[in-house]
Helix-turn-helix domain-containing protein
Amino acid sequence: MKLKVSEVLGFYTAVVMNAQNLGVSKTDLENYLNTELDETDVIKAFGAALKAMREIEKESLNTLSKEIDIPNPTINRYENGINAPTIPQIVKIVAHFKIPFEMFVFLGVAKMQGQDIEAWYRACRAAVENAQKQSRAQRRAQGKH
């Protein structure tokens, strides 16, 4: 079964479409969102994004391995699309980079299609942080914590 990136992103499709400073046309962005993925594509996209974000953050494999308590060779296999991470490992990785799994897939697809994703990664992180701030503010306004 194949899914479009926009289906994987779900709610975050709107976040991505509204992100500022992506430096890409809406048409190109829609093309990335309409890319169809199978299970292998998702694994490869996640790995491509992981490697790119680690390099953007200037983290070595050893540093990342220590930070998230996943062995260096295991991370390397994820980055190269050889193995798929387990759910607990995905949770550690996405928490470290502060973007949801779905955005890893989106960024990985863009990276695999030759896009320099540094600005995208930063814009997506900012968009997620802003959405989280808005959600917290709404809950406070409603008297919920």
Notes: The radius of gyration is 16 Å. Strands lie at 3-4, 36-37.
